[in-house]
Amino acid sequence: MEKDFxxxxxxxxxxDLIRIVVNKEEYKNELVEAAEDELRLRDKEQTSIPSEKxxxxxxxxxxxxxxxxxxxxxILFFLYAPxxxxxxxxxxxxxxxQDNTVLAIGAMWNILMSILSIVLGIGILKGSKWGYxxxxxxxxxxxxxxxxxxxxxxxxxxxAFLILLETIIAxxxxxxxxxxxxxxxxGLESITIHSDNNYVERDISQLSIIHQSINTxxxxxxxxxxxxxxxxxxxxxxxxREEAIHLLNTYNSFYKTDLIDDLKQLDSSYDAIKRNVSTxxxxxxxxxxxxxxxxx
Length: 296
Fold this sequence. Notes:
It contains 15 helices and three strands. The protein is an all-alpha fold. Helix 4 packs antiparallel against helix 12 (241-255) and helix 10 (204-219) packs antiparallel against helix 11 (227-237).
């Protein structure tokens, strides 16, 4: 019998399959499962959305806004580069005349620091986790190092100035830590953006099922029966904040309506509405309190 169901769904159109899944209470479980499997199989084939159909929502999510503190930290590292390079070269020339090995080592170290400063500045600006970790670690080590020399030297203003700059870098990085944690989470399982940026691929069938289920639920005199299934499908597509943003964008592009607004309309009580949009609350896309305005 299972083979018969598989044969039946092979002959169905995609809309027919979606209709079976949405109205599953009207069909045998075996047929519904076969329809789901057939939809997944067809979705493995190339399914694309032309880039001109995408709303600015997805473009905004792809371009991450850089906080002012990140700019400040990266600029300070860029400014450090010529400083250490000049100091290193001066130490190198002096060590050559005086045959001072310690000074020569210090010169090489400062030149290395000038190169490292450029690398860290770029890493911080790009929002890389290694840029954050190495940048913060370097700033803390330098604060301790300059602090040591501050108490060892008579001319303390120079070291006090360096301590101040390193403290600014450390504070700026710590305050904007979320920027680095979110930037590297761009790998999405159900969404693929091609390198030529012309197409976006995703599980279109699941979106269609969600959309039709919402419409069916709205038209019922006594709703609520399909809400759990809708939420389960949304949760399967929204493992990360980025996936949720892409889901909202694609849903809007296809159906010219907002998914969150549609979910709000499934129930009239505040508690039920909050439950329906809880996925997007948890992923920090909308506010927790009603009317659950967007945070984007």
